[in-house]
Amino acid sequence: MIKVEFLGPIAKAPMEMEAATLADVAQKLKEESELASWLDKCAVALNDTMVNDLNTALKDGDRVSILPPVCGG
């Protein structure tokens, strides 16, 4: 089981799911209408390390963070 957390303005409670890769996570998240519009804009971190390969393998206890774009100065 992995944990998926949503940061910033996404404002969705963390969720747990079974997933072998980040591609599995993306597929499951795209099924939720309130998340689908965010996914193409967001960065992803796996256990606090930025990743961009959807083929990245996941293991039990991993934490996936969905990071929306932000403005700053």
Q: What structural class is derived from the secondary structure elements? A: alpha+beta
CATH topology: Ubiquitin-like (UB roll)
Number of domains: 1
Roughly what fraction of the amino acids lie in strands?
25-35%
The major beta sheet can be summarized as: 5 strands, mixed
Q: What do we call the CATH homologous superfamily?
A: Beta-grasp domain
Distance between the termini: 37 Å
Q: Report the mean per-residue pLDDT as an integer.
A: 92
Envelope shape: globular
> Rg from C-alpha positions?
12 Å
Strand order of the largest sheet: 2-1-5-3-4
**What is the helix/strand order?**
EEHHEEE
SS summary, helix count: 2
Total beta strands: 5
- What's the architecture, going by CATH? Roll
Low-confidence stretches: none
Description:
The protein has helices at 22-30, 33-39; strands spanning 2-6, 15-17, 43-46, 49-51, 63-67. Strand 1 and strand 2 form a beta hairpin. The longest helix has 9 residues, at 22-30. The chain has a 5-stranded mixed β-sheet, with no helix packed on it. By secondary structure, it is an alpha+beta fold. The protein is built from 2 helices and 5 strands. The chain is globular and about 25 Å long. It has one domain (2-67): Roll (Ubiquitin-like (UB roll)).
